[in-house]
Structures are given as C-alpha cells and as structure tokens.
C-alpha cells in the first residue's frame, strides 16, 4: 500500500471494470495483499478463487478485474500474486526498512548542510531529492513495501491512433497481450501510409457488411496481422467503391461543439481549451464531426 495508489492507472481500470469507486477497490486491494502477506511465502494462494475474492471484498468482479490488469494470475489450483517477492515476505521487509533509514539519512544530511549552500546549489539539491526520494512504507508488524512505479512515457501518436480504432480511452491501461503485440509490430505500424490508415479507419467505422463482420475484434489480433489486415481493408473498400487517396477530413480550426463531444464520451474529462487537447483527442472529435456530417 502506497500514498499514490489512488491515482494508479491500474486502480482506475479496476474501477471501470467493477463500476466501483476508488475507496472500495483500494479496500479490496488492502485485504488481498494483507491476506497474501500472512498466508503465503511465495505468492501462491492454494484454493483461492476469483469468486472468493469478490465475496471477501464485497466488490463484484474484482477477482477477474485483478487478473485482467495483471496483479494476480489464476492458476489451476488457486491464485498467484504478481511480483510477490518484490513487495512481500522477509526480503521485501528488509528492503523497506533500509529505504526508511536511507530516507531519514538524506533528510538529516540535507538539513545539516542547508545553511552552507548557495541558491543555485540548493535548487539543485531539492531537484535531486525529488528524484531520489523513496516512497514511505507503513509502520507495523506487517510491512508491505511501497511499490516503485515509473511514470509511463506519453504514448506516441501511432498507438493513440490504434486506440481510436477500438474506442479505447487514452487513459485506459492496455493489457499485456496488446502491449506485446504493439512492441513486436511497431516497425510495421510506423510504415503505414496515410492511405493505409484511412483504409483501416474506414473498416472500423462500418456498422454492417463484410468489413464489420470479418474485421479483427481486438487490437492485439489486429497488430499481429497488420499487413494482411491493411490489404483486406483495401479490398473491402474497393468493393464499396471507396478510394482512400481522396478521402481526407481536415478540421484545422476549433470545431464548434467540440467540448460537448468529449464530455458525452467522458463526463469527468476536464475540457480546458481546444489548443490544450492532445492530438489523439482532437482526432477523435474530428472523426465524430465527420460521422455526423455523413449521417
């Protein structure tokens, strides 16, 4: 358990999957990790089922959601906690105590030398401390190490465009199979031309017909068959008389009603200004506008 768990994207995903608030989901996580710390030495919980997790926490669907985000793995005879040896057990507790001692030493050293520093060196030291500070670990007989999580780098525009094909929000965490498929086929994705993209986007706009029936149903499968899928997109579009060399929708100025389009999709999204929106969100709005014009 750690101070920034509330804003972890995986917790947000759990909330989306279970339709529960953060407080309920994090309460369920506390039970699971605490129970695992007391009942297991290697992260394997013999006999525990996804249904039992739902029952013990009172959060319906939490077990399946935990498996989906990768915090547990369902095995034949029970459940396994991911990365258990890093955060639980005797070795993790020793690391936690060392982290606390190191944090206290840095604070003491910084205070002792503070009066001797110039303004420039003080600013540098503060920056360094912000980078090196170790997360605080709760006190008590049971110590769960504060999980160290690197902030993810902003997704590139290519992956954002793939997300839009399947209406995956920019804030949603991609599952392991999709992430692996993208890394494997990243070069092929980068080589797609504008016409290739318009062909794919045409396919995933179709509500009926052969394209809607036989297109890939998830992003991982599309990525793993990207070259053949682009060719099939051209073939399907050709049968419908569509030429992608001519299909281009550009809305360069601020579109009218863009804020309502975003809040309809995600009421919690803070619409500051059109210029401040990420490119992926702008493309989403433009696509919605184009669909409205076509209908």
How would you sum up this structure, described in words?
- With 295 residues, the chain is mainly alpha-helical.
- It has 2 domains: 1-151, no CATH class; 157-294, no CATH class.
- Helices cover 57% and strands 4% of the residues.
- The protein has 16 helices and 3 strands.
- The protein has helices at residues 9-18, 22-39, 50-57, 62-69, 84-87, 89-113, 119-132, 157-165, 176-184, 186-190, 194-203, 210-214, 219-224, 226-239, 258-265, 279-294; strands at residues 44-46, 72-75, 78-81.
- The protein has a 3-stranded antiparallel sheet.
- The N and C termini lie far apart (50 Å).
Provide a short characterization of the protein structure.
This protein is 57% helix and 4% strand. With 295 residues, it is mainly alpha-helical.
Total domain modules: 2
Radius of gyration: 24 Å
Basic shape: globular
Helix content: 55-70%
Distance between the termini: 50 Å
Q: What's the rounded overall pLDDT mean? A: 76
Biggest sheet architecture: 3 strands, antiparallel
Structure class: mainly alpha
Number of helices: 16
Number of strands: 3
> H/E element string?
HHEHHEEHHHHHHHHHHHH
Main β-sheet, spatial strand arrangement: 1-3-2
Runs with pLDDT <50, length 5+? 128-155, 246-252
Task: Please report which band the strand proportion falls in: under 5%, 5-15%, 15-25%, 25-35%, 35-45% or over 45%.
Answer: under 5%
């Amino acid at each position: 358990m750690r101070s920034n768990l509330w804003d972890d994207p995986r917790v947000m995903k759990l909330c989306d999957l279970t339709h529960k608030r953060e407080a309920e989901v994090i309460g369920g996580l506390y039970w699971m990790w605490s129970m695992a710390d007391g009942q297991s030495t290697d992260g394997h919980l013999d006999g525990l089922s996804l249904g039992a997790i739902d029952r013990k926490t009172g959060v319906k669907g939490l077990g399946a959601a935990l498996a989906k985000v990768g915090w547990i793995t369902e095995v034949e005879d029970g459940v396994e906690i991911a990365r258990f040896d890093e955060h639980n057990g005797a070795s993790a507790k020793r690391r936690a105590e060392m982290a606390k001692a190191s944090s206290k030493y840095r604070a003491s050293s910084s205070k002792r030398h503070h009066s001797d520093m110039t303004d420039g060196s003080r600013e540098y030291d503060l920056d360094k401390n912000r980078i090196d500070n170790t997360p605080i670990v709760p006190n008590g007989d049971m110590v769960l190490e504060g999980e160290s999580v690197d902030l993810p780098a902003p997704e590139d525009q290519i992956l954002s465009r793939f997300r839009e094909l399947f209406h995956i929000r920019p804030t949603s965490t991609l599952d392991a199979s999709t992430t692996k498929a993208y890394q494997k086929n990243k070069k092929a994705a980068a080589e797609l031309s504008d016409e290739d993209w318009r062909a794919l986007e045409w396919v995933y706009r179709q509500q009926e017909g052969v394209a809607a029936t036989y297109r890939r149903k998830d992003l991982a499968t599309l990525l793993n068959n990207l070259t053949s899928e682009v060719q099939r997109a051209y073939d399907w579009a050709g049968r419908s008389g569509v030429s992608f060399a001519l299909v281009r929708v550009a809305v360069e100025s601020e579109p009218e009603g863009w804020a309502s389009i975003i809040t309809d999709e995600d009421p919690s999204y803070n619409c500051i200004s059109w210029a401040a929106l990420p490119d992926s969100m702008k493309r989403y709005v433009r696509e919605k506008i184009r669909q409205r014009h076509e209908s």
